[in-house]
Specification:
The structure holds 2 protein chains of 2 kinds. By secondary structure, chain A is mainly α. Chain A has helices at residues 6-26, 30-54, 59-89. Classes of the chains: A mainly alpha, B mainly alpha. Chains A and B meet through helix 1, helix 2 and helix 3 of A and helix 1, helix 2, helix 3, helix 4 and helix 5 of B.
């Protein structure tokens, strides 16, 4: 087990992103889909930090800082939407929310 | 030692990410997500980004996950029983996993990056991030602050009884 290289971190980040994407497709619960979105954002963060470390630039970490902030905003607004949706429809299943379905 | 820590954190990371999807109970999924976030914070620390590792634990494991658990308790979500993962969805998910994994595997950077990795970045601590945040990136920083304010107002409006 040698020292992990940039390739290790990038493959790990890609696998994590794929797991998150698969989760959004497989699961039908809006809350779980939000969690999978978080997984994908975290995967992108991991590759940014790895690039920042291996190119010796702190700027990548500043970008990760912004991504974390925006992710927190997204969760707050998304969960508020979810709660008001639940008040109307009494469900959080994506397939039972069909108001916009043609 | 660094190699062992990397593989350990990577295993926990991927395992808990899969557990988020596979678990039928929302609370178990949320706790798996906390495990994933802690493993990722460990990887950040391994990469020398100690400040981001701390922020990751504060913001994600602290604030965001408490919000998730709060909503789960508030809506009183039950575990999905009797609704198995749809086979088509599982197949599509596995296909994406394989395709993306293969793509990233092929995209492993050439030796230029690896030679560079021998030197350890020294000054990537909170001080230099702070200098960048309040120096070169002060405008995006203020914009993010405004975004937080807008989101807060939006959440309050959304949470009112009669919108």
């Amino acid at each position: 087990m040698g020292t992990p290289t940039l390739g290790h971190y990038l493959v790990l980040s890609g696998l994590l992103f794929a797991i998150g994407l698969a989760g959004v497709i497989v699961r039908r619960d809006l809350l779980i889909m939000y969690m999978c979105l978080e997984i994908m954002l975290n995967a992108a963060n991991l590759s940014l930090v790895a690039f920042s470390r291996f190119s010796h630039q702190v700027r990548g970490q500043v970008l990760v800082f912004f991504v974390i902030t925006v992710a927190a905003v997204e969760v707050a607004v998304g969960l508020a939407l979810l709660v008001s949706l639940y008040r109307m429809k009494r469900t959080t299943k994506a397939e039972e929310i069909t108001a916009l379905k043609f | 030692m660094e190699g062992f820590l990397f593989w350990f954190a990577a295993l926990v990371l991927l395992g808990s990410a899969v557990a988020v999807i596979v678990n039928r109970s929302p609370v178990a999924s949320a706790l798996s997500l906390v495990t994933m976030i802690l493993a990722l914070a460990g990887l950040f620390g391994l990469l020398g980004a100690y400040f981001l590792a701390a922020v990751q634990v504060w913001v994600y494991a602290g604030a965001v996950m408490v919000l998730f658990l709060f909503i789960i308790m508030l809506l009183d979500l039950k575990a999905e029983e009797g609704t198995p993962l749809r086979p088509l969805g599982v197949g599509a998910g596995l296909l994406i996993l394989v395709l993306l994994g293969a793509g990233f595997w092929r995209a492993i950077p050439s030796s230029a990056w690896e030679a560079n990795s021998a030197r350890v970045a020294e000054a990537n601590d909170a001080t230099s991030i702070g200098h960048l945040l309040f120096g070169a990136y002060v405008l995006p920083f203020e914009a993010v602050g405004l975004l937080l304010l807008v989101a807060m107002v939006g959440v309050i409006v959304l949470s009112k009884k009669d919108v």
